[in-house]
Task: inverse folding
């Protein structure tokens, strides 16, 4: 090829970075961390206001801060990082140049402009509409326009990713099928395209409404389509962070998937069924029929839950197989005890897997069960659930991957490695506590997005039980601990980038070295229906299932004691 | 070889599963089916299923119906006359208006009697969060949602708005008495 670019082979990882792709990854990752920083500062305002004995901010400021916190974290931080991950999964893992770098930079610029525009709209006041911005409550036009520009940029980035796959195939930089991690990234991209198109379908008319071009957007139609965007965007995260789990298992342990067929099949289930999940936001709504709710909220018979349960076994299973091959074969759990718990890439991912499954996964199914939703809808249980999925699942996985990328992509020695070593524990475990107490308070009925649980100024105020106040106090305590953990991550990442010792960049070549064709490994032969290669992971999975079943029926018991409804 | 490189065997989809995976997929599949059919089972045999009876409405139409109920069945007022307490007969259609920032009127129902509760919003989205029972229903403007309720315990219940609806959101609380 005649395209002028260079390829750097990292001496520490053996990965090959094309120079344009490398700069794009770096830019997107840095933008992501900047939004994480802003969202993290905003989080202080949120938790210190919901901590009843502190109750820091005024109502108007609180709702403004909460709106910005939600959007900066759920959209800007995560999607910028995901774009970096997509480029990594295409250009780096397939060892090819990135397609249309100029267009990729345009996408980046649009995303930055959109993100900044949306943030400014919120800080100007008058756009405290929460991330969901349900019509007919209206924000400033620049609020919607910022989101639309960001989404267009993200959509372009998806097509750059897909284009890069085409380049790799055409230029034969690899043979056979794409790696599993790239396959997961393709899953995320397909879901992303669906998501962003849904967002456009509803945000464009809402923007037109805000500037007076059209008269009305139906509130129920808005909710239905907005959630096809709002929830599906979380499914991009799931597909991405599960890809990262597999990637970190490969990087830390040299683990290979237990079977490509099962892991890829599970990703395929995501593509087919995961989008239906947006229905579970509408279970307490008027309008939709019972049949529609039951079929869609179960992602058509829980096939996407099945996929997550499969990944929940196969990711630790892959680690277990790799560890056992290294000789950590004693008993059920020697492979886990002897895992590199001091390596934040591993500990972050493992804390993420457990928290995502036990806290995020189980609570998600409760909320997504048609009848059980009535005891959860819009209570603070909901943010309890999605902080377990999006913070423990996605954000912590991204943090774990960053620790690997600091020497590899940033070419810097990590500053404060001891802090980094403890960061996943502080951040992850305090988020476990944070999510649990939010779910606890939500079970007692405490509302989400609510400035004052004492209802001051209300003629008919309700008094929450003392336990609810105690748990909301603990939300504050765990929240501050988690924010401290987040601050350490930002300090280590930004500090390494700015002041870390520069490392050898490795050899630079003007042509790519293709992925070497891999000889069929002898290990393949050890797989088969007779084996029981990952008994420890299987036991962990059974513990998970027992917790799941128990908690599921506890909730039905709770529901059965309520008023009759029909 | 690993998850970040192409599969070593080009015919990877022909590999047999490990037994751990096969057993787990089977168990997980059965559990997914149990959860799916549990929702259907509860529709047939359970007592807590949210109605989906819905009509398009307007603030004027709904207010007229609520006002007619208030005129006919008010038994007293509370909060200096701001809230009529309405006690419709068992089986009646009862109306609750959600608006910035209150629920109106106060309802007085009888234990173990069934009512058709009509909910809508006059303005933004609101939330019907019945406490301490903890039943949560979305209220969407323009749509009249008819929910059949049967209170099973007497006492004073609060209706907390749990959908963000602006600066006075935290003051939006209504009441239902069950005798």
Result:
């Amino acid at each position: 090829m005649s395209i002028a670019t260079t390829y750097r082979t990292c001496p520490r990882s053996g990965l090959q970075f094309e120079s344009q792709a490398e700069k794009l990854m770096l830019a997107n990752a840095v933008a992501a961390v900047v939004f994480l920083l802003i969202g993290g500062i905003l989080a202080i305002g949120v938790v210190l206001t919901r901590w009843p004995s502190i109750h820091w901010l005024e109502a108007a400021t609180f709702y403004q801060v909460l709106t910005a916190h939600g959007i900066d974290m759920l959209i800007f931080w995560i999607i910028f990082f995901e774009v970096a991950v997509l480029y990594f999964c295409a250009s780096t893992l397939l060892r090819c140049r990135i397609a249309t770098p100029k267009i990729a930079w345009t996408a980046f610029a649009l995303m930055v402009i959109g993100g900044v525009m949306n943030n400014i709209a919120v800080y100007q006041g008058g756009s405290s509409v929460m991330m969901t911005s349900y019509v007919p409550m209206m924000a400033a036009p620049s609020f919607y326009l910022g989101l639309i520009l960001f989404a267009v940029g993200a959509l372009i980035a998806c097509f750059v990713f897909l284009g890069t796959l085409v380049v790799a195939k055409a230029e034969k930089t690899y043979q056979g099928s794409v790696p599993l991690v790239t396959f997961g990234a393709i899953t995320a991209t397909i879901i992303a395209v669906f998501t962003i198109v849904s967002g456009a379908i509803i945000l464009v008319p809402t923007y037109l409404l805000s500037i007076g071009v059209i008269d009305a957007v139906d509130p129920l139609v808005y909710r239905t389509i907005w959630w096809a965007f709002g929830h599906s965007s979380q499914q991009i995260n799931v597909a991405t962070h599960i890809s990262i789990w597999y990637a970190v298992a490969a990087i830390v342990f040299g683990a290979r998937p237990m079977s490509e067929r099962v892991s890829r099949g599970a990703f395929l289930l995501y593509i087919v069924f995961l989008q239906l999940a947006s229905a579970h936001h509408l279970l307490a709504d008027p309008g939709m029929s019972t049949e529609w709710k039951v079929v869609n909220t179960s992602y058509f018979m829980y096939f996407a839950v099945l996929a997550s349960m499969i990944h929940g076994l196969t990711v630790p299973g892959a680690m277990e197989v790799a560890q056992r091959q290294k000789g950590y074969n004693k008993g059920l759990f020697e492979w886990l005890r002897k895992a590199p718990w001091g390596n934040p890439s591993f500990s972050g991912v493992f804390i993420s897997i457990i928290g995502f499954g036990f806290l995020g996964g189980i609570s998600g199914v409760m909320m997504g069960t048609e009848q059980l939703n009535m005891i959860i809808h819009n209570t603070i249980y909901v943010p309890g659930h999605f902080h377990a999925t999006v913070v423990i699942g996605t954000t912590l996985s991204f943090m774990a991957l960053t620790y690997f990328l600091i020497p590899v992509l940033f070419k810097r020695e990590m500053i404060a490695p001891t802090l980094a070593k403890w960061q996943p524990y502080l951040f992850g475990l305090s988020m476990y506590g944070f999510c649990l107490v939010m779910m606890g308070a939500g079970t007692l009925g405490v509302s989400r997005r609510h400035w004052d649980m004492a209802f001051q100024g209300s003629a008919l105020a309700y008094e929450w039980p003392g336990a609810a106040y105690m748990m909301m106090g603990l939300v504050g305590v765990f929240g501050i601990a988690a924010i401290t953990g987040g601050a350490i991550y930002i300090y280590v990442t930004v500090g390494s980038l700015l002041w870390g010792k520069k490392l050898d960049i490795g050899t630079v070549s003007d042509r790519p070295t293709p992925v070497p064709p891999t000889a069929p490994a002898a290990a393949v032969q050890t797989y088969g229906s007779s084996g029981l290669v990952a008994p420890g992971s299987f036991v962990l999975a059974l513990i998970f299932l027992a917790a799941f079943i128990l908690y599921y029926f506890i909730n039905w018991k709770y529901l059965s004691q309520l008023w009759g409804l029909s | 070889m690993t998850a970040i490189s192409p599969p070593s065997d080009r015919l990877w989809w022909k590999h047999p599963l490990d037994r751990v995976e096969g057993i787990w997929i089977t168990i997980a599949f059965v559990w997914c089916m149990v959860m799916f059919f549990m929702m259907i089972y509860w529709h047939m045999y359970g007592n807590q299923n949210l109605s989906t009876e819905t009509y398009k409405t307007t603030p004027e139409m709904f207010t007229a119906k609520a006002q007619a109920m208030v005129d006919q069945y008010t038994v007293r007022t509370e909060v200096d006359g701001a809230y009529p307490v309405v006690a419709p007969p068992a089986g009646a259609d009862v109306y609750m208006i959600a608006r910035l920032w209150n629920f109106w009127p106060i309802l007085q129902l009888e234990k173990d009697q069934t009512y058709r509760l009509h909910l809508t919003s006059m303005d933004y989205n609101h939330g019907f969060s019945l406490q301490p029972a903890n039943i949560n229903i979305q209220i969407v403007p323009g749509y009249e949602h008819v929910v059949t309720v049967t209170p099973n315990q007497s006492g004073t219940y609060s209706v907390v708005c749990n959908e963000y609806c602006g600066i006075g959101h935290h003051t939006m609380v209504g009441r239902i008495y069950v005798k």
